[in-house]
## 1
Amino acid sequence: MTDGIRELIEAMPKVELHMHLEGSLEADLLFALAARNRVDIGFASEAALRAAYDFKDLKSFLDVYYAGLRVLITEQDFYDMTWAYLSRVRRDNVEHTEVFLAPQAHLRRGIAYGTMMDGVTRAIADAKSRLGITCGLILVFQRQFSEDDAFATLRAGEAFAGHVVGYGLGGPEVGNRPGKFARVFAEIRAQGFKLVAHAGEEGGADYVREAVEALGVDRIDHGVRCEEDGALVQELAASRIPLTVCPLSNLKLRVVQRLEDHNIARLLRAGLNVTMNSDDPSYFGGYMNDNYVATQRAVGLTREEIRTLARNAVSAAFVDATRRGELARSLEAYWAAR
Ligand code: HPA
Ligand code: ZN
């Protein structure tokens, strides 16, 4: 790759659509919060913690991830985590981002809904006024828990729904099919919220189809295993339902063995509405620019494909027409000057 392409990527205005706030907690902040809250995370040093970021699959990652988020106790902790991410990706020229928060992971540790939501939303408001970055919040249910637990979580958060753009589904995929949450998602859709679901990361193409058909999602998170079903690929191309693809995540969790094997370029060339995202940047070795640069190098994305990925994210964002227009104009002005 020429330095020209790296610079082109780094300076490009970007939109991120798949990022777990709890997965943005860098080891240094995690350690600082552990000390501040006197939480024993079971690692002697930051280096020892980072050394544990050697995952063999989604489950082995989620074990470390759920252990790490126990350092989040106070409103300020949620603020600090959210602020750290937003200020970090602003330096990657991210202009708009949509972030996931998993309330169940915190509620079951005894953290109040208001504690997490107040910290996260205060940081989002500060980032907008001080950094000019906009951020939508998506609450994700953890699919290993029951439908009843999802409904209870939805009800417990009703007072905060005005701060939320949509709801999603995360956690260990295989064995926890999308259809388990069909009734939850139907109720949320009726309330006018956007819907997303992780599908086709470790689950097969049938999980992607089920997320579309049984949940009626507006975007698929990951979705890369759709390729195993040729008819589904054609349907996704026709419907233009966005896929929030996360190449470095897929490499770290061994969805692909080498980044060169990643199908993002093939999916794009098959006409799918693919976007580039970081997923859990502190654990997977990279934020937005790292994902773009490493993937470009590994699979040979062209300049035009980089532009298409960025345009797709603008069109797939859960924003109003005014903000979409601003993001689109910013991106087009950037490319017009190239
Ligand atoms: N998949 C499922 N659940 C998650 C992930 C992921 O990549 N990251 C955080 N929770
Ligand atoms: Zn994810």
Note: The mean pLDDT is 97.
## 2
Amino acid sequence: MDLDQQLNLFFNFIDDSIIVIDRSQKIKFQNKQSIALFKSDFTNQHITNLIRAPQFLDTLEKSINEKIPYTLELLIDPVSQDISQTNIFLSVSIYPSKDMYLIVMKNITDVKNLEIVRSSFIANVSHEMRTPLASIIGFLETISSTAKDDVEATKKFLSIIEKEANRMKRLLDDLLIITKIESDEHVHPTKKVDLLNTLEIVENNFEQSLKKNNISIEKAYDDENLYVLGNQDELIQVFSNIIENSIKYANENSKIRIKLRILEDKNKDNSVNRLFQYNYAIIELIDESEGIPKKHLHRLTERFYRVDKARSKDKGGTGLGLTIVKHILNKHRGSLDIESEINKGSIFTIKIPVAPIT
Ligand code: ADP
């Protein structure tokens, strides 16, 4: 094998896309990854047939003229390049030598997407915090100036301040819960948790507020002795968030029905992979309300997503309740399914692996 063939082989081992061009900017070599990225071998064609971005072509010119390496970040537009369905972010380095130029392209799409998610999350949190804080500052100013001698107005404003401060606290509490769950989301719980006892704890916790809204709970349990693989505190959080929503958004004087059944794993005896075989506990929480329009259902577990922002805020919502539910259930190898019918109500179906009998 000569040196050229050997180099070709080495370049194909590398995960990055590599292109070599000559002085006239004709492509002399593309490694396997680069052919896969651009969906074609452009050998002997001009580099502009491969990458048209002016930002890249300018930097390439500069590198050729100044004979020094350059690195730039490039967003490859999938439509104009016809390469893939989604945007691709590349970190492109150009290394000049005497007659040849080496172009190394690292795919940094995942890192960039994470950056985008992170910064939009920070923007959202800041916005959510800013509103109650602005209102607290505004009312404090009013109390210490125009309403200084007005006892009645001061009382009213103080109660608004308390409400807003509590909203900020709830927001921070929910954010801390999400951070904690996210940090160990891949660690699946292995303890046996008594499902009926867990549901009973939740029901007791909501006794007052159920009474206040004249909402009753009706239970239909197929199995009275059901243990799931879980973390009880986290499962209490799951059921609490859903029941709290049902109390918040359902009609007064209505019913919340809780149904419980087991879904047997059909492939139990003939599947090769026994590691992930479970029977599932299916818990349905059904409320009576004006319902949720279909177009919103798939977005309800997104952070800060609310169908009616004003209504959620009025009810003390943070827009994070169902996000927490989704994260906890992921951690439990479980799932959440939401169905809803206008003027009837919603069904929240939770699926959690049943603990094996030991
Ligand atoms: P929030 O703190 O706003 O209640 P959640 O994440 O718990 O946030 O829920 C997201 C949104 O889903 C709510 O703002 C509300 O619009 C809708 N929602 C959740 N549960 C129900 C329900 N039981 N009935 C009607 N709408 C609901």
Note: The pocket of adenosine-5'-diphosphate is lined by residues 241, 245-246, 249, 287, 289, 292, 300, 305-308, 312, 317-323, 346 (CB under 6 Å).
## 3
Amino acid sequence: MSSLPAQLAREFERRYSRSARLFRAPGRVNLIGEHTDYNGGFVFPAAIDRATYVAVAPREDRRLRAASLSLPETLDVPLGHRQPAGNWTDFITGVAALLQLEVGADLLIATDVPIGGGLSSSAALTVSTAFALGGGTLPRTEIARLCQRAENEFTGMQCGIMDPFASCLGEDGCALRIDCRDLSYKAVPLPGEVRLVIANTMVKHELAASAYNERRAACESAAARLGVPFLRDVDYSSLTGRELLCARHVMTENSRVIAFADALLAGDMTKAGTAMYASHESLKTDYEVSCQELDTMVEIASKLPGVHGARMTGGGFGGCTINLVAADHAPEIVEQLTAGYRAATGIPPHIFITRPSAGASEIPA
Ligand code: GLA
């Protein structure tokens, strides 16, 4: 067992004088298909090799208690509690309420997913909690839907299904091409000659959650005006202003996901990379969810030998970029990108190679 879950298990025993079961759920990185999930479109995420771990043991007194090794707030509430506290414990409250928990529990949580860094630390937390609280017996797509609802209803973030879906259903070595209209998906293996490099800009602009919800509302009002359930397969020429830009991004991004997945299967990395750069440009100019630091990271990457493609990943306004790079160049790309971004912005970034990994699971004792 790698060291973080082992440390978590030991700490649980020390605090609660009994042993625990351990569960893990990974963060995710989206290769392409951004802001399309809540529009019934295509996305292409991979679960990553960083995860949130939950140690859990039942309690006899119908109370739910949770603590984290990395965050100070704690939860200590009766079952059935539904009142958000305005901090990370709201994810636990939400998942427990939606699972209609009947048995109390102690939870202790640790993570190596950067918190709030755009790699879906929230979905890693809700999904690992859902597995730990017994939801692991439900079909995985149902767990993903429940976790999305927990985040929507208990934290106010109107996120789509992509992140909990990837955290639940990720497959080792693969990215998932998901159709968010019906949740059908195909696991596409990442070719051996490429690597995924994640570059965290280390900035998160304050407006992220409100701007995300605004974009979603604009898409929904455009769809309503056009009389369709989702902004997909529509003629957007009658729209204007923000609605037109949003609809154009969603439509073109959907085609790029298909082109990217086909290029990956055909081993055409140049074509895959072209789709990634075009995705970034569309998110920057049409959807307006990029920021200077993300643009700088993509621009520096685009000039490095061995980089096939780069783009912002996740909701935007900071967080990370994803880079598709030649395997034999990956270590020096990490170094050069780190040095280049630091020189351009004065901010030391966090850049690392990741490997697509399997979705949530129990860790055997
Ligand atoms: C966030 C949300 C996802 C998705 C992305 C943008 O990560 O949680 O549902 O909408 O932004 O693609």
Note: The chain has ten helices and 13 strands.
## 4
Amino acid sequence: MSSRTAPRSVAIVGSGPAGLYAAEGLARKHPDLRIDILERLPTPFGLVRSGVAPDHQGTKAIQRQFGKLLQRPGLRFLGNVEVGRDVALDELRAAYDAVILAIGAALDRRLGIPGEDLPGVYGSGAFVGWYNGHPDWRHLDPRLDGPSVAIIGNGNVAVDVARVLAKSSAEMAASDICAHAAAVIAAAPLAEIWLVGRRGPAEASWTPVELAELGRLERAAPVVDSADIPAVIEEADPRLLRIREKTLETLRGFAAAPPDGKRIRLHFLFNAAPVEILGAGRAERLRLARRRTGEAFEIRASTVITAIGYRCHGSAGAPLDAERGIVANVEGRVAPGLWVVGWAKRGPSGTIPTNRAESFAVAEAVAAELAQVNAPKPGPDVLDHLLAARGVTVVDHPAWLRIEAAEAAHARAGAPREKFATLAELLAAARAEDAPTSSSHERAQLNAPRR
Ligand code: NAP
């Protein structure tokens, strides 16, 4: 085979939506391409598995489509392989004609206010990872022992966190929330959840459908001060105007709803910027400043969850744009043969479909670059040798299917799966061993009849 016709190879680092859509874009147009998808966890799908709310199973259904993609000839899934630990980025670049980083934005942005490091304060990445079974956060053990939780931020992640905390066990029964988290939330003595926005309701970045869900909860009722809702808003973009008007209409509905006997009050607090988290050895109160007057006031909050966005850690060794918290790039191009997609490329914005068009566009640019390659690099064999020599346990696609089957088999009645949330459990399931799980005790508790 001449070097012109020898297959080209691409390594994609990260198996979330952005990486998988890049793989799909490349595979569709170039079926001969050899594509390896490296993932540091034993499980694929990134935020579809560990970010999307456990009660939004409709959104998670995209996993089926992604699962089919992983079975494509020429494409391999290599789970439990971390770039920067098991293989260096430079080694990958030497082996593959192109490397695409799809490493997401795994670090919580910080508020930069005093008290942020007190026990009881959590970033949404950690908190969501905890209830969604991300092994990094299995042992977060967040304090949910007080009546009042403050969630900072007015985006969809803040809404997700508020809803997961506010829903009853019955409402979460068909979700895939991890048993360890479901048990803690069910036992929490929650009476009030504050959704804190530093700007007004018209500037909130949540979407109206997600917001409206907060008005239909069994044990929680929204509380909105109608004085916070402007009568008219100015917005030049007609699409944004419609979204914002829908938000205001939903909030007006919340404000007008008669009081009811629900246990949890879901307070919407607008135009209130966090100034300090106060407490003796742990979070107890949140001090805020009113936007227009600067007047300071406090709310009680024994748990504070910040849902204010994320930044890329860049641990794969790629150049970082520290200010924006992304991998430095121009339209996805980082350096010759090195590309970036998804949140690591543009920052933490957009939904799953946003990644489709964007990753397809980067895939086109990668393919154009590959067409210029005269001497293909050695490809996947080099990686296989490196990983074997280093004793790395690769979780391939059949092994992932064993994990998936075991999680389904462990599910409580009505739930799609019970995720394994530690590496030991995941790797045992990948080997098809019947390892005792740390979750089994909690699962038994969850299934026990309530007194
Ligand atoms: P986001 O939409 O960017 O919201 C971040 C929020 O944090 C904003 O309200 C922002 O206020 C606020 N914030 C930032 N810095 C702050 C500070 N220092 N003090 C107080 N507030 C601060 O981000 P996200 O909620 O993390 O969501 C990330 C992306 O995932 C979004 O595109 C979202 O739509 C998507 N997502 C979608 C779904 C869904 O479709 N169901 C679910 C989850 C996430 P300002 O506007 O004032 O900056």
Note: The longest strand covers residues 272-278.
